Every structure is written in C-alpha cells, then in structure tokens.
Amino acid sequence: MISWRLEVFEVLGSTSDHCIARAKAGAAEGLAILAHQQSAGRGSRGRQWQSPPGNLNLSVLLRPSLPASESSIFPLLAGIAVADAICAFLPAQAAPMLKWPNDVLLDQGKLAGILIDAAPNATNLEWLVIGIGINLAHAPEIPARRTSTLQAHGGEATPEAAAQIVLHYLGFWLEHLGSSGAASVLDAWQQRAHPIGTCLTVQTGGLAVTGRYAGLSPEGELLLNVEDRIERFHTGETLLGKRF
Q1: Does residue 88 share a domain with residue 34?
Q2: Is the pLDDT of residue 136 over 90?
Q3: Where are the beta strands (DSSP E) in the chain?
Q4: Which of 9, 70, 99, 145 is 20 to 30 A distant from 234 in Cα terms?
C-alpha cells in the first residue's frame, strides 16, 4: 500500500501543476497536494476547472513501473476510487455513476472530474499525476452540462476528510491493479458505470458520434455500437443521450 504524504495549502495556482513541478524535482511517489482554492485550476481538454472554497482540489504523484501505453487504466482506476470515496459520505440510497473516461456523476449531474498528466521515458512512465476535483459544497456551472454536489444529496465532507478517503481508496485500487491486473479494474469500472445499451454521444476531433454503450476494450477504450458496428474510442468527451 502506498504511504501518502498529504500537504495542504490555502491557495495554489493548480494542485496538478504544483505536483508536476515536484515530480520533476525528484519527489517520491505518494506525494498528495490539497489546496482549498485554485487560482488556475485545469480541467479536461484545456478547460478551466473552477475551484470555489469548500470543494476538493487534490493531486497525487505516482511513479508506476508500467509502459506509457498502459497509462489509460489510471483515469478509470481513479474514477473507481473517487466513486467509492463519495459513497462513504452519501446516504445508502444515493449512488454515483461513472462516465467514460473521467467523470463521476450523481443523479446525472457532474460531481467530480479527473485529469491525468504523465511523462514517459524510454521504457516506462517516469511519473504520473492524477488530479481530482469533487464538488463537495458548490457546483460550478458548465455550459450545456448538469452539475451536482455532495451536499445537495445529503452528504457532508470537508476537503481534508474527503482527501483522506480518496487516498485510501486510491491506494486500495492501485494495490488491486498490481495484484489482479487491469482486467479486474476494467470490470470494477463497468460495474459502476451506465448500463450496457445506454445511449451515448462521443465528441472527438470535431465530430459527434452517437450510439449505444457496448462496454470497454481490454485497453480501456470505449466501445460504441453505431448502426450495428462497434467503434472504438481512446479519447473524446462523452455525453449521456443524443446531442445534435
């Protein structure tokens, strides 16, 4: 199990940028950076991640002994860990749902997002930083997207308490990856995701493709049934339902 070293800051530009700088300076695996506010938080696809006080802004440093080609498992693994951590603060009847590749939803509103930064070397990943944002108390607006908060669904957690539980489950699932392999992580992700057959639209490369969710490939790619043919996506933004 990883021995986490949590450092807490009142304000940072970006927890992931801070973690990356520490990684480049030689920091050991297990560094975790929590900021109560970010002035330049980063989301997926170059978007700004809004970081009002009261939400979780956490980034962690890993140095996995894996080829860069296998790094696609980490956003899925982190999603499982975040979903499991969120469950620890929710009433029993509320359950988060995972949406490929890096979103955690609650009542179909975005509750959390995950951002991966990595540096490959000649053979393996030199370092990998997982950035995690969870709307604990506030739901920043995202154009054309529903957002949600833990608090609105009966859950209460301080950023520090949420960080500790997230780190616990991250450690658990990283150990599980090492002992049981990527296939078991993919299976766990699918158990927490939208059902097979769910209508999804994937936006990638300026195109929008709508089909039915058909599971994940062994590499963690999204499989979409589009007019009775299976298409694979290794990147893109996924939206529930049709988008025209």
Answers
A1: yes
A2: yes
A3: 5-12, 31-38, 56-62, 97-99, 103-106, 109-120, 125-134, 199-204, 207-216, 222-226, 229-233, 237-240
A4: 145
Predicted confidence at residue 244, as pLDDT, reads 41
CA-CA distance, 44 to 23, in Å (whole number)?
20
Query: Structural domain of residue 164, as residue ranges?
Result: 5-191
Q: For tokens 């450690």, name the residue.
A: 171
The position carrying tokens 């939803």 is 105
Length of the chain: 244
Q: Look at residue 99 in the predicted model and tell me its pLDDT.
A: 95
Residue 89 identity (one-letter amino acid): F
> How far is 206 from 21, CA to CA, in rounded Å?
32
Q: How many CB atoms lie within 10 A of CB 116?
A: 17
Q: What is the largest CA-CA distance in the chain?
A: 52
Are 18 and 136 found together in one domain? Answer: yes
Is the pLDDT reported for residue 208 higher than 60?
Answer: yes
